[in-house]
């Protein structure tokens, strides 16, 4: 399909031409430059500048609030299995804020920014699902054990006529795959959006099957529906077991940020459609530009409210370490939270499990914790606690020591060097250490 582009001879009020770009009957009107409004001083230009300033201020405030919130979790990184998912969830606030601000300023590239934003949304939803699982147990075996008492429950509407076995292997895997499929499909949709929009065959204002936007929208809708169904189903099963963590507030925060942004974008686009004509173009912005800009401005404002809600929903005080104890360096904690290898290992495991009935080879559950903090010496082992990579086992506990997990703290500070003195009193290394350390 040939890509066409020409200048609308009707022009605009100040003589700057409006460009129409697209293919065949799919045309998007855009002005010739993102900078048209910024070099004029009339009322229309001032309105755009004011909106840009408002979007920037709210985006900056939301980003600062979320950054401080994330830093507090990284400073008290005592439960990496849980907090890495919390950091990933909170990151959706600055990502939404910054991308929405860029969409307002550089409105011609807005579809590309929006596609990237929607891609990360999938990772945040998956992170929340994994966080709920961590609340009931560190390992898959512990999680299934916690669900053994949930037999006899029914599936969530509209399949509530069927009973579910949450502890069953098939049910557990299908629920997790219901979330992980969104992590696969959403980046794929993002890539398709970028490629097709660059070639003029995406057509975001059209829902005709001949354009990529129709298929991307349908696939994304089905994928996120399945993901949210799996999330709701898990929440119904474990909500009583994790009520101390206030899962309802967390669930509302995640669900609100997804559905509010989706439906307001849908409504604004509908108001700007050719059949309604409520939203119209201005001297410097076409109707499509106004729709993108208005959506971005509203999201920037809302992100401040969501940032405040996330502080309440995901507090760091629960993980706060005592003063004077060793803490995981913030840099290492941040790298760990951005290490998405656990997601990829889970995806690969569940893909293999789905074909296992055919191959008759069921895969082994992946160890998503192995090697996340890299190789550690005995000092690192003493500081971070039991690490699966070095296979350490606590053999003696005194009033000065506490059995630890990765990221937890201890008042014990091993001297230098630690191999000959500190290690025998507290740990027996089953492997990876010299005999003198045992």
UniProtKB/TrEMBL annotation:
The membrane topology of this protein is: Multi-pass membrane protein
What are the record's GO terms for cellular component?
membrane
Q: What is this protein called?
A: DUF300-domain-containing protein
The family database entries (InterPro entries) matched by this protein are listed as:
Ostalpha/TMEM184C
On whether Membrane is a keyword of this UniProt record, the answer is yes
Segments spanning the bilayer are 52-74, 86-107, 119-137, 179-202, 214-235, 247-271, 291-311
What are the entry keywords? Membrane, Transmembrane, Transmembrane helix
Q: Where in the cell is it found?
A: Membrane
Q: Which organism is it from?
A: Coemansia asiatica
Main subcellular localisation: membrane
**Which Pfam families does its entry note?**
Solute_trans_a
């Amino acid at each position: 399909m040939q890509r066409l582009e020409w200048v609308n001879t009707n022009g605009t009020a100040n003589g700057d031409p409006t460009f129409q770009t697209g293919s065949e009957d799919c045309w998007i009107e855009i002005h010739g430059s993102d900078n048209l409004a910024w070099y004029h001083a009339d009322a229309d230009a001032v309105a755009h500048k004011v909106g840009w300033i408002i979007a920037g201020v709210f985006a900056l405030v939301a980003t600062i609030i979320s950054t401080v919130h994330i830093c507090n979790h990284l400073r008290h990184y005592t439960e990496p299995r849980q907090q890495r998912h919390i950091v990933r969830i909170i990151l959706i606030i600055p990502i939404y804020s910054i991308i929405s601000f860029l969409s307002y300023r550089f409105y011609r590239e807005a579809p590309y920014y929006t596609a990237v934003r929607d891609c990360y949304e999938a990772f945040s939803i998956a992170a929340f699902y994994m966080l709920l699982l961590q609340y009931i147990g560190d390992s898959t075996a512990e999680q299934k054990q916690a669900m053994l008492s949930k037999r006899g429950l029914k599936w969530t509407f509209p399949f509530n006529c069927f009973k579910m076995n949450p502890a069953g292997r098939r049910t557990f895997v299908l629920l997790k795959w219901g979330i992980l499929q969104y992590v696969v499909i959403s980046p794929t949709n993002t890539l398709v959006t970028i490629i097709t929009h660059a070639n003029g065959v995406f057509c975001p204002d059209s829902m005709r099957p001949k354009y990529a936007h129709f298929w991307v929208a349908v696939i994304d809708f089905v994928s996120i529906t399945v993901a949210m169904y799996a999330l709701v189903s898990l929440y119904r099963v474990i909500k009583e077991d994790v009520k101390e963590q206030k899962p309802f507030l967390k669930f509302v925060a995640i669900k609100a940020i997804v559905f509010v942004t989706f439906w307001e974008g849908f409504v604004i686009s509908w108001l700007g459609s050719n059949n309604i004509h409520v939203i119209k173009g201005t001297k410097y912005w076409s109707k499509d530009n106004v729709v993108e800009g208005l959506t971005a401005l509203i999201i920037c404002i809302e992100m401040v409210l969501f940032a405040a809600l996330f502080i309440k929903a995901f507090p760091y005080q629960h993980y706060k370490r005592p003063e004077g104890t060793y803490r995981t360096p913030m840099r290492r904690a941040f790298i760990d939270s951005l290490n998405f290898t656990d997601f990829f290992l889970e995806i690969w495991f569940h893909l293999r499990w789905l074909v296992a009935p055919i191959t008759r080879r069921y895969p082994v559950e992946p160890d998503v914790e192995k090697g996340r903090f890299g190789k550690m010496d005995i000092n690192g082992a003493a500081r971070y606690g039991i690490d699966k990579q070095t296979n350490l086992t606590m053999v003696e506990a005194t009033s000065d020591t506490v059995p630890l997990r990765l990221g937890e703290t201890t008042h014990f500070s091993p001297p230098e060097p630690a191999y000959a003195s500190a290690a025998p009193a507290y740990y027996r290394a089953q492997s990876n250490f010299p005999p003198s350390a045992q």
